[in-house]
Specification:
heterodimer; A: alpha+beta; Alpha-D-Glucose-1,6-Bisphosphate, Chain A, domain 4; eight-stranded antiparallel beta sheet; about 45% strand; B: mainly alpha; Arc Repressor Mutant, subunit A; two-stranded antiparallel sheet; 5 helices; 2 strands
Chain lengths: ~160, ~120
């Protein structure tokens, strides 16, 4: 069996409930800069999205009730997600909600914490409907599921 | 996500069922043997085993009036593969961001030196 988590260094993925997932990643840069990378369209389109895709549309009106629209294109596929920005607490916290494609609301809460020049970003995504939930990672998981996939992986290693 | 994965994740979501799986990694066991270290009754263990069996995580066999449960690893491997694929896609983006930030931090340093 391949050691799956060893191939993915850096971030941790947890599944706090049946409708959510959370990913935590630390970056070697001050918080202001990381905040910009997540909120400035020019910077965001340089790194965001699946490998091999280009962000062909990246609009972000970073203020409460501001709109955002992202389109990723690549390998014959195109995907758009759009919605509203709910909370802006620069450079600490950003809450946004995807409302398009309908009906797939999904709330994304991002927090940015700085310590000794490094910034830890926590992205928590919560789906509101079963449809979205099923499309997201945590499908089928019941309330209180706290096992990280790394833990699942180590369980697997033990089970080998 | 396939129904199969949904069943696997549902089965794994319960801590008691995970303890049962951990026990079964050491070899097959009867309901009695599984219940002994757990604070629950044998009928409760049987119910959990049924969920695990439906998810394909456990196999049962009868031998000389005794019923043994054993572990099947394939659904676990599929669940991990699914999650790690998802995780990998995120990490690919984050690596690009690492590079971007490294350049930006470097530029700010140089700007600082020029001042």
């Amino acid at each position: 069996m391949a050691p799956t988590h060893a191939a993915i260094p850096g971030s941790t993925l947890t599944l706090p409930s049946d409708t959510e997932f959370e990913i935590v990643r630390s970056f070697a840069a001050p918080r202001e800069l990381v905040w910009r990378a997540f909120t400035d369209p020019t910077l965001l389109r340089k790194w965001s999205g699946p490998a091999g895709s280009t962000m062909t549309v990246c609009e972000m009106d970073v203020r409460p009730n501001g709109k955002f629209r992202w389109t990723f294109a690549g390998e014959g596929l195109e995907f758009t997600t759009a919605g509203l920005i709910h909370e802006v607490d620069k450079p600490r916290r950003l809450v946004m909600e995807s409302m398009d494609p309908d009906p797939t609301p999904e709330v994304r809460t991002m927090t940015f914490e700085e310590s000794s020049g490094r910034t830890t970003v926590t992205i928590r995504m919560k789906a509101a409907t079963k449809e979205v939930r099923d499309a997201m990672l945590a499908s089928g998981m019941t309330e209180g599921m706290e096992m990280t996939y790394t833990q699942l992986d180590s369980l697997l290693t033990e089970l080998r | 996500m396939s129904d199969r994965l949904t069943l696997t994740f549902h089965a794994l979501a319960d801590p008691t069922r995970r303890r049962i799986l951990e026990r079964l990694q050491r070899g097959e066991a009867t309901v009695q043997e599984l219940a002994d270290p757990l604070p629950i009754s044998q009928p409760a263990v049987s119910k959990h085993l049924k969920v695990l069996e439906e998810a394909g995580l456990v196999e049962r066999r009868n031998e000389a009036q005794r019923r043994y449960a054993s572990l099947r690893r394939k659904p676990l491997r599929e669940a991990v593969a699914y999650i790690s694929e998802f995780h990998r896609a995120w990490e690919e983006s984050f690596s690009r961001l690492d590079d971007l930030l490294e350049d930006a931090v470097e530029r700010e340093k140089q700007r600082g030196r020029r001042r």
